[in-house]
Amino acid sequence: MAFKFKLNGQEHVLGIKARRPELVATIDDKSYQVAEAGDLGDGGSLILNVDGQAYGVWRVATEHGIHLKVGGRSFFVEHEDEITAAQLDSGAGDIVRADMPGVVVSVIAAPATPVTAGQAVMVIESMKMQITIAAPRDGQIGEIHVSQNDTFDKGDDLITMRPLED
Amino acid sequence: MSRILSKLQTNTTEFKANYAHNLKLVEEFKEKQHQARYVRPQKDIDRLANQGKMMPRERLEKLLDPGTPFLEFSSLAANMSYDGEAPGASVITGVGMVAGREVIIHANDSSIKGGAWYPLTVKKIVRCLDIAIENRMPVIHLCDSAGGFLPLQSEIFADRYYAGRIFRNQCVLSKMNCKQLALVFGHCTAGGAYIPGLSDYSVIVRGTGAVFLGGPPLVKAATGEIVTADELGGADLHTQVSGTCDYPADSEDEAIAIGREIVGQWDHTPKWPIQQDAIEEPYYDPDELYGIIPNDIKKSFEMREVIARVVDGSRFHEYQPAYGTTLVCGFANIWGFKVGILANNGVLFNDSALKGGHFIELCNQNNTPLVFLQNITGYMVGRDYEAQGITKDGAKMIMAQVGSKVPKFSVMCHGSFGAGNYGMCGRAYDGRFLFSWPNSQIAIMGGEQAAKTLVEVKTRQLERLGEEVTPEIVEQVFNETLEAYQHQMSAYYATSEMWDDGLIDPIATRNALGVAISASLNAPLGEPGYGIFRL
Amino acid sequence: MFSSLLIANRGEIACRVMRTAQRLGIRTIAVFHHEDRAAPHVALADEAVELIAEVPTAAYLDIEQLVAAARATGAEALHPGYGFLAENAGFADAVEKAGVVFVGPSADVIELMGDKIKSREFAAEAGVPLAPSVTQTGDTDSFVAAAAEIGFPLLIKAAAGGGGKGMSIVRSVDQLADAAVTAASEAERYFADGRIYAERYIEQPRHIEVQVLGDGQGKAVHLFERECSVQRRFQKIIEESPATNLDTELRDRICAAAVALSARAKYRNAGTVEFVLAPDGEFYFLEMNTRLQVEHPVTEMVTGIDLVEEQLLIAAGAGLRVDQNEITQTGHAIECRICCEEPDKDFRPATGAVRMLQEPSSENSRFDCGVRQGQTISASFDSMIAKLICFGDTRDQAIEESLEALGELVLLGVANNADYLSQVLAHPAFAAGELHTGFVVDHADSLAPAPLADLDKAAVLIAAALGDEQFSRLVYETPEPYASIGHWRN
User: Fold this and answer.
1) How far is it, in rounded angstroms, from Cα B124 to Cα A20?
2) What is the model's pTM?
3) I need a labelling partner for B37 at 20 to 30 A (CA). Which of A28, A66, C73, C373 fits?
4) Which of B70, B183, B236, B251 to mutate to test the interface with A (most CBs of A within 10 A)?
């Protein structure tokens, strides 16, 4: 398993090599001896000792990432949990499929439109209910496999997502 | 507890010769392990890469908690079978930590003939599930197998401990509330389909994972239906339609991440409490074990020097130090766990057998697991000893040992010959785990003794027939017997046949026992139940 | 003295004014927009009045509502703080008409100093030096001739406008005519007024300002100068007092000019006269700010005078309590403006919630803060949320104190310039006092975030990970003997 943390736009893989007598953490396969005193729990602070160098640490996590003050400087670190990180790597959510059979009421976003996760891209009707189909993740609309008034079956592809081009 | 005072002389020629000899043995062992684990034909490596699959050990490393041990079982299983075509018996099994839970792992090695099951593969899987049952542990199955190796079907299908036992064991585990998770990376065909089918949770990788009773070729042959593997038993079919699998994943990484999160939901069942003390590294360097183990199976050595390099702080409370001295008994700690150790320091006499039986009873009363360190040429033979009842004293020791409620662990340290193997908890005695050192040898009797015995038998046979007994015939019988013995009594043969749970480097003994004892405490100790001691 | 004071402002300055008022036993009344309902200035006040407006800033600019609030709460005086309506003559007038004392100068002085052209003329009459300039009155040729006489380099711009449109720097006479034509056409296009204006362009100018107090009767004193040369996007970020590398004689002349201007204007209230100081030692009048300045604390620290208290005393008619010769300047003070912004993205304002706020604890520091932990910083208001002012016996000590305090300041959750301020303070050119208004731009490369050493990066990542639930569980909750054995394969 790999813990991925992003600092200044660069991804680093963190691991644990040993816990006794001291924590040995690995960052991109390089080992560091870690000792700590304090509690980093929600909004906590501690003295962190890495390879003999002491750092005062304050840390707070938000929905966007982790804000830290370490050794007198402020940092922002992004981190995804294991499943999300794996999904991002594997391109999960590339295809939006129909959960149930229905008919397309309207197509909101056109191919090549940049969208953010949760943005409405299509409205369908099924079992007398209108359902908004939202973008599963940030990116752009690749293909739209159905048009207005088309009917579709459960499991049919509706939309293919593409990554945003840089 | 007092520390063993080592009398080991590390600057003697003998120590150095032993050291060089054993180091070489361990290097050979590690090289064989490396070959069995990693060396594969390029085409097999390419095939997995083209399918977007990880190598089996990559999956394993990603599944396990970082910075924790993995005790692999029988890494050299089948090393002397099938012309070496099934290294490790094409399956990886062991005990490790996933999301903070101690689990048994069973992973198909799809880099060998698509993970096909050979007879010893089945034996190894059944053994790992037996371990799960005996120790009440959850199991994670990493499925990617082409199914049974058909040319050898008669040795894998029908008998009691053949493939059917795998699924039977899954049901038994489930009944015992041992959770099972299947991560379906590749095909689970025919019986193999029951592995996810009988698991509590299953994750299947879209595109490569498939579960079906009959694969596309069999379906075509049976009904003429032409269907792809994905249509027949892919992730979407099983997670959306059939409900055979629970979670679809878009990649192996995602499947592993989902799997880890699933295991993270499992309750922490408390371990069976035994005496535990603060962990202490051995005072004496375990590396010196190489210089202690003799370079000849016939040479004896001081077992206390071995104990001093395995147990916490090299501390040992010896029981009856002056009685039955050929069996060293006493209490020690391994990774904090209190254990009772029985170690051979020579042939078993009446007094040593009685002492051993008594000590086993003490440990059962005290909830102390038993560790047997074997170096045994047997119980003493001869008229005087028979007259003293060596057989009935040996029987008492075996009775006490078999009736034990506490978990038992055995390490084959050097020789294991004759009935001594039984008294010292050999494979047949349901120890929870049994490991062998690469120098160890095991047989019904020593090779030269057996050869001499057979020469004796042959000579009498020829004499009865009135034929001449030439020195050539004597030499031929002797050499043939010895050769066959040497092949079959080597540690590699024993481990190939899975008479143990794997070879270990002697200096890894402490870690192997630590994980093994920890695993064993998932099961309740129960009550000792002895039969009749022949008093 | 008044018994009650309404503070027509928000943020750190509202809090700062209230602190002095409360020390003097004055009842304080805050005003607030809905978005600020949980802001510290509301909590700190004895009473608070909500101002209704769709756009949050509009609330604090609503003269009618503010006057009504003062009346309704029986406020005897109103302190405008800085920004918003602090220099709005109409507001001062409306407040006075409502029978509430406006803590500031009279409306006509505000108006005079608020008019660029009139204030320059007034300053000239007071003998305050102005940068040589010429405004186009006739044809281009005569303008060019007059402008050439000022000397080069020259700044050419539209007479009617500002904001850099139609502005150019001319370094020699042969470029002048072309520049004048271009500027005139742009002036016509942007401001419908083709008249142009030329003035001496000062390279690497310093911003020096003088704090004054006037009693409104013609008596004025100065509280020495402040240097505010370190600026980004034309806004000050670090100010100090005294100015470094400024000889006494020149400083006296600058201060004297400020006092002369204030006295002539019969200035009432605390005020600031701003100057541009050229590298050749010439200084020119820029403008007079008729209110309390953001950076006033550095003056308070080196003079020991509470400027808000003086403002209130003057407004209450008590006049000036101190004579010029009683005012001394001791030690050195530096102010850092803490702004929610991203220095490495051209100081783009940043928004977000302040998730963790811990003030520096050093006794030689003062932290004037307008936000509390948990508060959301929106784009509605100015990005400056706090000021850190540090004192030292010498400038080096003040820098040292500031760096230490910035290191202690924990402000997490929203991007801010604390690290950037440290970079500036630690810069050798800052230490050497080589300051000018282009400092930040000139040293942009060396002020970029220092590359992170491997060990520091490791510390950041490990700190991030240790607080993560999954990771910390793996570190701390792995059972024995697994934890002690560690990574091991047999």
Assistant:
1) 33
2) 0.84
3) A28
4) B251
